[in-house]
User: Fold these one by one.
Assistant:
Number 1:
Amino acid sequence: MSEKRTEIGQLGEFGLIDKLALLAPSLSEKTLLGIGDDAAILKVSGDILLSTDMLVEGIHFDLSYMPLMHLGYKAVSVNVSDIAAMNGTPHHITVNIGLSNRFSVEAVETLYKGIFSACKDFKIDLVGGDTTASQTGLLISVSIIGSVQPDKVVKRSGAGKGDIICVSGDLGAAYLGLQVLEREKQVFQSNPNMQPDIEKYQYMVQRQLKPVARMDVIHELAEQDIVPTSMIDVSDGLGSELLHISKASGVGVKIYEENLPLDRMVYETAVEFKIDSTACMLNGGEDYELLFTIQQSDYEKLKNHPDIHFIGYVQDQTAGNVLITKSQHEVPITAQGWNHFNS
Ligand code: ADP
Ligand code: MG
């Protein structure tokens, strides 16, 4: 490889931070002072939303198929998704990184290119962070600040009996994307001359590598003057998120298999991988779509939306959390969400 490689030691931590600060776009008028001082200064009105997420190499991502640029984008996007799920608007992020000496200055710049690309997409500023050495690979932790008007905030706990359960986009693609990447990695390891065959799986691979938080849905709901009664983003899997809403709201949920949003490519790939496509949608995870409930009176305003799907109803807690299958069987919804501790 002839690519340039500058050791981080050559530049030093401060040199590296200076370099990154120069590349950081400035997009939010809510930033009074960004990178460079002891703390950032932010001007935010409304209730402040704060969330954080940590990604660890080998646990949350595998650099053998996750390009650094995508990793940077995804780390930001999943945090934006958490702000969206509160019906809020994101404004600022901080990024903490732990780097082993495997990573060059150029690699870190590539990671930040992805971070800045997400900052542009979501109109947010990177306003600080921390940089440390690591013995065992890459750690990246993003914290995000957003805001919401107090009367517009949406929690997991507001769902009421009779509300309609909605989900944006389609489900299961990111999980299958991961299966494709894992399979190609194994093919490559057993025969490095094989060319990866991911062209026809592009949609799913892209959903895995570069999820886009659904701020568009949040803006559309606001335009329609709809405040969902409860909301959560789909990170662990639809089944697991439904149970979070059920528990927090003290209700039961009933969803219909035939109403679940299944993309044609997802269906075909699930068949090829001999995985049940409904299981992919329920348990796959990492879709970063929005799952929310609305009052029935808001249905008219949303019913023709091309990318919002009505998958069921909120019912009494005593009626449980169930899926009605295409063959009209009632099966309990279980949380088989992705769990780092037992996988
Ligand atoms: P301090 O010792 O006060 O924590 P640092 O040298 O760690 O200061 O950081 C200097 C400035 O650079 C601060 O504004 C900090 O937020 C920012 N910074 C440090 N590391 C990163 C990073 N990985 N990404 C973005 N900003 C960073
Ligand atoms: Mg510091």
Number 2:
Amino acid sequence: MKKKIKYPVYVKFPGKLLIVGFGSIGQGVLPLILRHIGLDKKKISIITADNLGRDVARKEGIPFKIQPLTKDNYQEVLDQYLGKGDFLLNLSVDVSSIALMEYCRERDILYLDTVVEPWLGGYTDPSLSITERSNYGLRETMLAAKKSFGKGPTAVSTHGANPGIVSHFLKRALLNIARDTGLKTKKPKARAEWGALMRKLAVKVVHIAEYDSQVSEKPKKIGRFENTWSVSGFHSEGICQPCEMGWGTHEKHFPKNGHRHKSGCGAAIYLDQPGARTLVRTWTPEHGNFLGRAVTHNESVSIADYFTVRKGRKTIFRPTVHYAYRSCDASILSIEECFGKNSELQKEQYILMDDITKGMDELGVLLMGHKKGAYWYGSQLTIGQTRKLAPYQNATGLQVTAGVLGGMVWAIEHPREGVVEADEMDHERVMEVIEPYLGTMKGAYTEWTPLEGREALFPEDIDKSDPWQFKNILFS
Ligand code: NAD
């Protein structure tokens, strides 16, 4: 007989929990919530827009209803499930995060999401400006809500894997580099101290460097977009939104098609091209150097903003921060196919799950430009490890669902913080909750730079005075 594992219950929650959206992330996080949060199963409900996950809900004994939220009905629908002291977990697409946050704020309900999502059409509506469609612009709407709400029921913004737990990896990585370079430092407490530490260590660039090597037994089907997580989510951020990055103070070459936003925190820029076709040179311990895609993400802006150091009104330090994502083989073929059809999403969509035969999601932060060159710190999680750790998900999903669980535990433990981003949370508490689900946590230094092996076949326009310029990192 299989021995029943006793899982630690990190926190008790007496209220009701409503999960909005039950796709790959919703299904994956449910068993983790049931294991680690002390709440009455009868108080959980799920609402979605389609049949995805109905079987999982039935198996776990959780009521499941198709009740899509819209601008017009969301208050009325949510009122059927939620009241003061409850928890709204938003894992949907096409539902405005800010509207749900406001709803929760007014009724004293805890909240967590994994992206700042707009209502349906918010990534593609031609009447919107690029700033409005960008993650920079969406994050500004969240910052405005944060400011106007002040302290109140905790609403954790964008706490999955990335955005989410990579912000906690980054703080660990900084402390590791400080230790390994002999910099005596106390663990920073406030935002300004973290920025000062990064500046002292002379980190110039932070990549969220991810290589997803999961493959299916079946080759990619022509005419179908395949991925290891939300296809519509990846299409929105990779193909419909512009490439975005936190723009560092060490950068000497502003990109030809780059733009600054006219208002807001000023930490990031965007390019007149989508991230899924913005290839960048990056590095992870398992694969060495490779090409990733600078797909826009909230953490590229939030990390750059959080670690900005100012003297009076002048910005004196900021790292360049962006995603360098080598998505799974099937998704790369899907992206090419989609661009060939003028960026229109394939009608058929598919998330690789039980058919995955091998592979790993290697997700971490790569800190470059300091005394020891470059340092990667993060999670190496194979599909085999994933299947032993938790049901209903692949390795990519588990890194995200662990983040959702960690964020929920933190929110329940800190219920009056108002709107918070991962960068503002206690990273060690969250790490304690998520680490058992992340496979191997690895830290590795490398002498690799983006100048390695250059100009072997053709002349190139590079800046040898500083390898860590975006100009040198950009491939195309
Ligand atoms: P999915 O595409 O598998 O599922 C989306 C779910 O949203 C479905 O259950 C669908 O029915 C539901 N939905 C769609 N429209 C809705 C509506 N109007 N009302 C209610 N529900 C609606 O997506 P997923 O892979 O589970 O991802 C969920 C969210 O998490 C997405 O926004 C995605 O971008 C985000 N995500 C974040 C991270 C991260 O690391 N931060 C990683 C992966 C996914």
